[in-house]
Amino acid sequence: MPYLIDGHNLIPKIPGLHLGVIDDEMRLVELVQDFCRDNRKDAEIYFDNAPPGFSGKHKTGRVTSHFVRQGQTADNAIAQRLIKLGNSARNWTVVSSDRAVQSSAREVKAQVMPSESFVSLLTRPPKTTRNPAAADETPTDSEVEEWLKIFSAKKPKQKSDR
User: Fold this and answer.
1) Least packed by Cβ within 10 Å: which of 67, 78, 85, 140?
2) Is residue 148 part of a domain?
3) Number of domains the chain is built from
4) Is a pLDDT exceeding 60 seen at residue 129?
C-alpha cells in the first residue's frame, strides 16, 4: 500500500530532524527513500511553502516529492490528490497527525496513520533474509576440512558411448 505523507507534519516527530534546519525536507526524503526501497513501497511526500522557483514535483526512486508553492498548503494538495485518486484512494495510507488531513483521507476511505506511528516504521531496521550473526562466524578447522573433502572428492569417470 503506497503512502501519501504530510512532510512538515512528520519532520518534527523524527529524532534529529527539525523544521528550522535548511535541509530538513531532503533528509526526510532520504529516510523515506530508504524505507520504500527496503519495503518495496511507493510514497508521495507533500511540503508546503516552497520558495519561488522551487515548487513542483521531483521523483527519486520510489518517492515523489511535491513542493507546494507559497499561498497553498500541503494539506489541500493532499486532499486534491486523494480526490484525483478516486476509488483507488482506499489503497493508499495517508501519514499525518493533522486532524484535517486525516479527515480528508477518511472521507475517501484511505487508510490513516499518525506520523508518530510512521516514525516507528522509518526507524525500524530493515528485514533481512539471512542471519546476520551467522555471516560473521568463522568456520572451525574441522568444518574447513570437511568442505575440502567434499569439494575435492574425485567424481568417478563416466563411460562414453563412442
Assistant:
1) 140
2) no
3) 1
4) no
